[in-house]
Design goal:
The chain is α/β, with parallel strands linked by helices and 104 residues long. It has three helices and seven strands, in the order H-H-E-E-E-E-E-E-H-E. The protein is 25% helix and 31% strand. The chain has a four-stranded mixed β-sheet. A three-stranded mixed β-sheet has the order 3-7-6, with no helix packed on it. Strand 4 and strand 5 form a beta hairpin. The N and C termini lie far apart (53 Å).
């Protein structure tokens, strides 16, 4: 019985841990419709970072590519390429810094 119990316990622990895996939306937010954007950020060859606020919806333009993004994830800072893959190929790395919501 003990020989059977150990694998079952390990399997249940693994299953419960994988049920809590973070998705891209959990980490960075999610795509949004253009009607919801509050402002537009244009990326050029001199841009190294952008600042957004948690809960803000922004259009980010990088050359001919653009993305409308709702920043409601848990990530406080990440590479723009995580949400806009074309940004990785177009030049230097651009960081996104998400200002947290005020407490209270």
């Amino acid at each position: 019985m003990k020989a059977l119990l150990a694998p079952l316990v390990l399997a249940s622990l693994f299953a419960s841990a994988s049920a809590f895996a973070l998705t891209q939306a959990d980490q960075y937010g999610s795509a949004a419709g253009p009607q919801f954007t509050q402002r537009t950020i244009v990326i050029d060859s001199h841009t190294r970072y952008v600042n957004v606020k948690h809960g803000e919806t922004v259009t980010i333009k990088n050359g001919n590519d653009s993305v409308n993004w709702y920043f409601d994830g848990i990530g406080a800072a990440f590479d723009l390429a995580k949400i806009m893959p074309a940004a990785a190929a177009s030049g230097p790395m651009v960081r996104v810094y998400v200002e947290p919501e005020p407490l209270g």
